[in-house]
Specification:
Number of helices: 3
Structural class: alpha+beta
Oligomer: single chain
Largest sheet: 4 strands, mixed
Distance between the termini: 12 Å
Order of helices and strands: HEEHEEH
Radius of gyration: 12 Å
Number of domains: 1
Number of strands: 4
Helix content: 25-40%
Shape: globular
């Protein structure tokens, strides 16, 4: 696997509009909050629900956010990353 682009969350912010422009094109989104992992499909799940879980308390897209092809992983959960890297 090669990394094509790295964006520093401290200097590049994605508000709701910018985040949705990225996320709405995904075939799937996995959002980790602690031990809980939620899975969404933008084509069928509500925009407001997805953004509610994807956005942080500062109003920006939560970090880390990883995009692989047309899927996103948002937040950190060790098991989610282990499964994803298999």
């Amino acid at each position: 696997m090669s990394i094509e682009e790295v964006v520093d969350a401290k200097t590049s912010r994605f508000d709701e509009d910018a985040a949705w422009r990225l996320l709405k094109t995904a075939s799937g989104i996995s959002v980790a909050k602690g031990k809980k992992v939620l899975h969404f499909v933008p084509a069928t799940d509500a925009k407001d629900t997805i953004l509610q879980h994807a956005m942080g308390p500062s109003g920006n897209l939560r970090a880390p956010t990883c995009r692989v092809e047309d899927r996103f992983i948002i937040g950190f959960n060790a098991e989610l990353y282990e499964d994803w890297l298999k």
